[in-house]
Structures are given as C-alpha cells and as structure tokens.
Amino acid sequence: MLTAGRLAAVLFAAIIAGCAHSPGSADASSNVAVKARSRIQESFEARLAVVQGIADKVGQLRLEQGQRDEIRPILEHALRQNRDIDIGLSLALEPDGFGDKDSNYVGDDPENDRNGRYAAYFFREPQDVGVQSEDMSAAGSGDLWYSPTMATRTAHLLSPGLYPLYGKDTPTLTATAPLIYAGQAFGVVGIDFRYDDLIADLNQPALNDGGQIYLISDNDTWVIAPFGSDIGFAISDRRTGSVDSDLAAAYEAYRKSDKFGDGPWRSKIGTVSNKNLSAYFEPLHFAGQIETWTLVVVTSETAQP
Q1: Domain that holds residue 295
Q2: Hey, which residues does 186 pair with through a beta bridge?
Q3: Is the pLDDT of residue 12 over 70?
Q4: Would you tell me how many other CB atoms lie within 10 Å of the CB of residue 121?
Q5: Which residues contact 190 (CB under 8 A, 6 or more apart)?
Q6: Residue 241 lies in a domain
Q7: E-strand spans in the chain?
C-alpha cells in the first residue's frame, strides 16, 4: 500500500515552549487522555468499521457462491460512496481462493496479477475510480498489510507513515480485515486513510489543555510524533537528538514496567525553556483489534527558581 515520506523537522522544544501553561498533576494529564482517547478511537474505529463492512460483503458473496468478477463492483461502490476511504483500498485473495482456479484469469482484467491471482488496488481519480494490480510478492507493498492480517485473522491498523497527497506529505494509516468463509480466511481487504484532521483536533487547546498528545503503535512506531517527520519510524530511531529522545527513553521504561498494556505510567522528561516536562502514558485499544497502542500526554509547568 503506502510508503513513508518525510516532512521537514519541527523543533519539539519550540512546540513545548509555545504551549499554554498546563497543570502537571496526574489528574490533569489523565483528563486530557480521556478526551484524546475518545477522539482517536472515534476516528480510527470508524475506519475499522468501514473495512469490516467491505469484508463482510465479500464474505457473503463467497457464501452465496457468487462469481469472482462480482468483487470489483463491491469495491468500486465502496470507494465511490464512502469518504472515510480517503485514498484507496486493496483486496487480495489467497491463491485459488474463491472456489476456482487463478489460471483461468491470467491476463484478464487489471485487478489480477500475472498468475491470475486476485490482488487489486482501487484508488480515487479526478472523475472516477482507477484500479491496478497489487504486488503481493515478499518485496512488494502488499505483504506489509496482507500477511499480518492473515496470520491473526483479525482487524489491524498498520503502516503509519507520510504519503504525498496534493504536494504535501500527509499522515496515513491502513485498516485491514480478513475475508472469512466457512471459518477460514481466504483473503484480506484494506483501506488507506489520512488522519491529519485528527492531529489538528488533538492540537486544539480545548482538547489538550495546553499539553501535547502523541500516539505509539503496538510495534513501537510513532503514529503521532513530536517531530512530524518521525511518523512511521520506530521509537528507537533517535534521529533528532532532542527532547523526543528523553520521551522515547521514558516510553521504553514504561514498556518494561508491569504497567505496560494495563495501566498508566508517569515520568519526568526534562526541562526546556524554563518549563518542567512530564509524560503520561496509558494503553489504548480499538474495537476488534488485539494490539495495544500507547497514548502519550506531555504537559509542562514553569520550573521553580
């Protein structure tokens, strides 16, 4: 699906220095976390519901002994009618995964690969919907979203990164769901969506109370980061050498604690521009997902002389 791009780095120290005063108490941080958690879950779970709805329709088609060429209209309709699919959607079947032989489809329609396997990416065009074959090889983008979903047979949020849209690198995620027939997974569907609107909401003082809100995926990757260009990179990749290194170190301590995935954790992370910084971590779950993500709230208060 999508690959990570890069934005120009924004100084984390400047972000924190520009924040309004935020009480440093655990109660203040947890109150911000409650509001942030609700907004994040609302946004991402809506996309998970969309991809699950598509998976259910394709699964029903298989149950009713439908034809493989009936999949394409389902996907085109979903992309045309649902604005939660901001960028595009993919669907791939297991080899010979729809009750007939892939060899019957070699060279037929753009949504099949060179072996006739159904592996398609549908995307928005100015006037309609475009389609191209998805590369499902180990070196291709398809394996990034297909294999994890097939392995667990559950929904996933995957591949946070920056994707160039209309000349601007934009935060994007992929939501996936398995296709199920007779208790077995026979393929995966995924949708690509942007979440810059969510980040803008989380940056509003009415929601963050003057703090800063970040998000870390289950595989320790920045989803919302101190540096915008860090999105999609591992926490352990200390490329900036600034305050986010202290934040990453605090997260790693939380990761090793008995609170990880179960309860909150609070840590001081340094002083910038005469402000003491504290990080509050708590687990974040999404309906239908097995992974645990981490919500982070960074607050500051004026250091005492």
Answers
A1: 12-43+197-302
A2: none
A3: no
A4: 23
A5: 1, 51, 89, 90, 91, 145, 146, 149, 158, 174, 175, 176, 177
A6: yes
A7: 88-93, 119-124, 129-133, 156-165, 168-181, 184-194, 212-216, 222-224, 265-272, 275-284, 293-302
Does residue 2 register a pLDDT over 60?
no
Phi–psi pair at 70, nearest 5 degrees: -85, -5
pLDDT tens digits, 166-175:
889 999 999 9
**Pairing mode of beta strands 222-224, 119-124:** unpaired
Tally of structural domains, the chain: 2
The reply to whether 58 and 26 lie within a common domain is no
Q: Using 50, 70 and 90 to split pLDDT, how confident is the model at 304?
A: low
Question: Is 129 part of a structural domain of the chain?
Answer: yes
Measure the CA–CA gap between 176 and 288, rounded to whole angstroms. 11
Q: How far is CA 123 from CA 36, 42, 141, 212, 241, in A?
A: 30, 24, 15, 34, 38
